[in-house]
Amino acid sequence: MSLRLGSPTPARPSLRDRRVDGEVALLRRWFRRVAYDDVGRHWVMVPKYDLPRGLNRRATPVLILIPADYPVVPPDGIFVDVGLNIPGHYFQQQGPRNPFGDQDWAWLCAHLDRRGWRPSADLVGGDNLATILELYATIFAAMLKPG
Amino acid sequence: MARTIRLNDKAIVLAADEPTGQDVRQAGQVDPGRVLIDAQTRRIVRPQDRIAGDDLYDAPRFDKGR
Questions:
Q1: Architecture of domain B3-60 in CATH?
Q2: Residue in B8, B31, B42, B46 to test binding to A, most A beta-carbons within 10 Å
Q3: ipTM, 2 decimals?
Q4: Which CATH number is A105's domain given?
Q5: Which of A52, A93, B31, B56 is deepest in the core (most CB within 10 A)?
Q6: Contact B2, B15 (CB under 8 A)
Q7: What are phi and psi of A129, to 5 degrees?
Q8: Which of B34, B60, B64 is facing A142, going by the closest CB pair?
């Protein structure tokens, strides 16, 4: 019997870690560039997300914070560029709702209904980060309407 | 005359001549917590809306903040 000394064995990825890794791989089928926190899996960032018509820019970077209980709990809102022509539910100033305001991120406040959130074990068979970004095309359009 | 549409990439046959979002919801057993979206326009299809596109998907309902 031998003992292996040296650097400690890296922690085995958790179920959540593997889920986020898999979802990033899925996102990379749709987006040329995807960055993410491959240590804590706290965030995923798409540098160029095409915006629907009606907005004053063609694209924005998108930052998604991954909840600790993901995928049981969906992300709450997304962070996008400041300076978009969104009339409400869009927080550009740094504060409790937007901790990254000092880094030119604005928080787009849209909450997904947890009763309707349906992730599945096979990633692509249910809701995931890719379907969220697909849904945001609809949400952006809804955000342009007052109310 | 029946009309066939696709919901989440599955074919659904609708009996109504001018089907609505509600017809799709019933035929596809769409969860009340989810909205129907026209895949081409990305617009929400409400229960009372007539179905324009033939390709729909569902997604979680959302609200624009509290």
A1: Roll (3.10)
A2: B42
A3: 0.86
A4: 3.10.110
A5: B56
A6: yes
A7: -65, -35
A8: B64
